[in-house]
Amino acid sequence: MADHEIPENLLYTRDDEWIRRDGDDVVIGISDYAQDQLGEVVFVELPDVGAILEAGASFGTIESVKAVSDLFAPLSGKVLSVNESLEDAPEKVNDSCYGEGWLITLRPSDPSQFDVLLDAEGYRASIAEREDG
To answer: Listing from the earlier edge strand, what are the strands of the sheet with 68-72?
Structure first.
């Protein structure tokens, strides 16, 4: 677990998504732990701009050489943009999951939902529980 990058300035979900606040909006991606577990990412399916997401609901899929996994919305809100570069270069999720490999930007509709997200320490503990379990 020590070899996974978990930036302190982000929030996380138990489903391995990260959330970075950007003014009133948020940028969402998958964590270094998640991309490592998936292996080489070969395809990413993201929602349409303007889609309304519900927290906890699937908003797309990510396919690797190992598996196809659902992406889960950490917050309810409206999709403002999607990372269209992943269509031609899905490996950016592996190469730069916290940078060029981001997935979507969202305008959250319920600020109270931030309260259930994990900080870096809580996310590390969540990973440790799974690895120990």
So the answer is: 41-45, 58-64, 68-72
